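Ticket reopened. Same input as before:
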Amino acid sequence: MRRGLTWFNVSSIALGFAFLYIPILLLVIYSFNDSRLVTVWGGFSTRWYWALLENEQLLDAAWVTLRVAFVSACVATVLGTMAALALTRYGRFFGRTLFSGMIYAPLVMPEVITGLSLLLLFVAVDFDRGFWTVTLAHITFTMCFVAVVVQSRLVTFDTTLVEAALDLGSPPLKTFFTITLPLILPAVISGFMLAFTLSLDDLVIASFTTGPGATTLPMRIYSQVRLGVTPEINAVCTILIAIVTVVVIAASIVTKRAESQRQAEERAAMKG
Amino acid sequence: MALASEKGWGRAVVVALPYLWLLALFLAPFLIVFKISLSQDVVAQPPYAPLLDLSAGWQGITDFLSQLSFANYWYVLDFSNEFLQAYGSSLIIAAISTLLLLAAGYPIAYGMARAPRSLQPTLLMLVILPFWTSFLIRVYAWIGILSPEGLLNQALMGLGVIDSPLEILNTDLAVYIGIVYSYLPFMVLPLYSALEKMDMTLLEAAEDLGCPPWKAFWTITFPLSLPGVAAGALLCFIPAVGEFVIPDLLGGSDTLMIGKSLWTEFTVNRSWTVSSAVAVLLLLVLVVPIVIYQNIQQRELEAGR
Amino acid sequence: MASEKTRKETIGAVRRSFAPWTDPTKTPLIRFENVVKRFGDFTAINDVSLDIYEREFFALLGPSGCGKTTLMRMLAGFDEPTTGRVTLAGQDLAGVPPYRRPVNMMFQSYALFPHMNVADNIAFGLKQDKMPKADIDARVEEMLKLVKLTPFAKRKPHQLSGGQRQRVALARSLAKRPKVLLLDEPLGALDKKLREETQFELMDLQMELGMTFLIVTHDQEEAMTVADRIAVMNNGVLVQVATPAEIYEQPATRYVADFIGDVNLIACKVRSCQGDQAVLVTPITSSPIHVTQQVEAATGDEAWVAIRPEKLRITLDQPPDITENCFEGTIWDIGYLGDLSIYHVELPCGTRIKVSQPNLSRMVQRPISWDDKVWVTFAPHAGVVLTR
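Engineering reply: fixed in the latest deploy. New output:
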């Protein structure tokens, strides 16, 4: 029961990771398959990637998706950070229970319900469906994820730092930008990244709330997947996986570096 | 801790902006869904009636109220329309999937929490990484594996384990595989964070007091990880009940799940009022687990301070 | 070192005669007037009135949760009184936010901004005042010199040791030259030796800068060392406000006597009070207790006599006069602390009293040992009669 890698721990981790990664790995391998039949290996080829460049529909959808993801992640980060501040810093205020309920509920709410209800709202207020309705919908559900990520950082935030800044003559708004924000920035950035990928990834809510000219990439992929597996889709997926993997690994290496440098400096300070 | 000094307009804006946003785009839509679930389908724009006509004053409101009916609910609750079966089978599929997730996730989380400290961040990142890649892609990957001419059948036949391809794709089994696969990080992460912060000296104390390791696991480790178990189970169970993509892509035509039924009712039958009633009932089914989940989350955060 | 000597002499002269609270012509710098603070149902501060004078080093002393920190935070502006007034130099502080108050605080956790280096931390408050950059640099330089951290100006807080961080926090809160410096358990995180050194540094600094310091602490030795006056708090109420010597030698209540230092509290009945001579009787000894003190009580009233262990004498031989202020008992326990020994003496009725004696000679074998029959005596001016 000591810390360490017993055969049981090693094998459960190994099996778990095999289960998580083999399907993705196979998908990536078969995107380089020369054959149109996705299950028969016909030799190495990058032809499906070149074919993508000519697929206007897919490229359009990718462009729409990126725009929606960027705009919604920006707004969601601002609103989510505000919500996190409201929940952690301001103690009790009128309707706090309702507010925290509205923050946590979207995290587990089935997407079909969120999507349907937002669509019916847009219809009821006669809002033209398209880019902006999808963006508004994405802001709404991703801001809650941002709020939770930022909130978990804020609860360990030493509020005496804020008090010290106020005590030294810095007004509240200025204190937020000079003290609080720089210190919670890593959480805010990961909140942004989470919002961005969730928006990039969303199929159901986008399908409900979209309108003419605002077909997103997941919707495009979905409609093709329903017709069967094609190597072209494998190629799109591989590109998306590659982008996400590179960004996530780079981000984690940067934070790990900063953390280990910090620890080294702290150790040096203890000795000196 | 509340800062008494942070009063005034700054505080008001910080609370009001996200609050109003969620009231307008999260809470108000549910009220609209509820209202439409009491309306009737018509061929018009928007495709339901009655509409609230405030210009007609009190008369308008009473007219509007008198035309509302529970007809859609009776339709949904009618056994022959297969919605009830869909609710039931969704709950069963979600419950079994959650148990499978727990069985698969607990050993992984336990192994991670007991791994050397230096390895843990890497392991954690490896669990989170698939979560960052598209959900749709991860479900899609299984189509290529599970289909009759897919990689799994090819491998099994190549090894001579089976003679003819197994029917896995388009069955409930594929749905289980898809849910377990897609939701695994959501189960592992809360379990890991509960197991990781456990004080290892507790186990040493138990052993010191004469408790063998396997018994210490069931009397010490597992009870202490229960908040993580509850959080992980709810985090998987609730969305799984309303899951649409997985049963649609991996399940068969006889796989009944309420998310798929709602989607079909909306896109194929184009009945907005019935799909609203389905959504309201689904929410009623899920309201208890959602409230429990919120309480766990809240307690977790308060304990963190 | 001649200048050092003169400086010390002037400080000595000032300290010797500094007692503005006894001078009715002086107006206090800080006034708490009937301050009450409630958090929900809980009353943290219950009707506190307190005056603090300019250049005073004032200590708020009490156990945790007694309201001392709340009182300080009301002065800093982090909490507002529920009722009552707080004024600073005649100005009512109600509604003035912390960033507009001419007081600065040194936090218990130091609250150093982790993303700024030492110089930037010290300059933070000065930058808020829109001071010219050259002046800021000069002031930061001066502050770094004051706390002897000049070579560490570019270090981040996590690259400093605990003692260094403490000095950065001090320099930062002093940089703006506030009217009052608030110190919230400023030395709590330091080890004993460093803490004692720093206490004397703080006193010198306060004299040198001529500033008013208000310190919150639960450490009675710290409060006694640094402060001109101490306010002892309990359950949101001020129990006694006085100089350290008064608090120790003339405690106002049993609570103060017990909280500050070690004490034997003996429950008695008053037999007679004549002028400044009081005589009391107690069931634990046959001899009456005689105290030289003006006591406002009638014969038969309940009262307590408080005697510090070091004010008792212990002998193996019977003293010549056993008619008053005398106990007879056996040694129950001995604590040898090196500089002194503590004897627990059990009286025939079962009550135990504590006696401490300085160990004046280098003897490994002490003459008094376990189960020895001993006599404990004390002078009439050693004890204090308490009626509350």
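The two ends of chain B are 9 Å apart (CA to CA). The longest strand of chain B covers residues 40-41. Please confirm and we'll close it.
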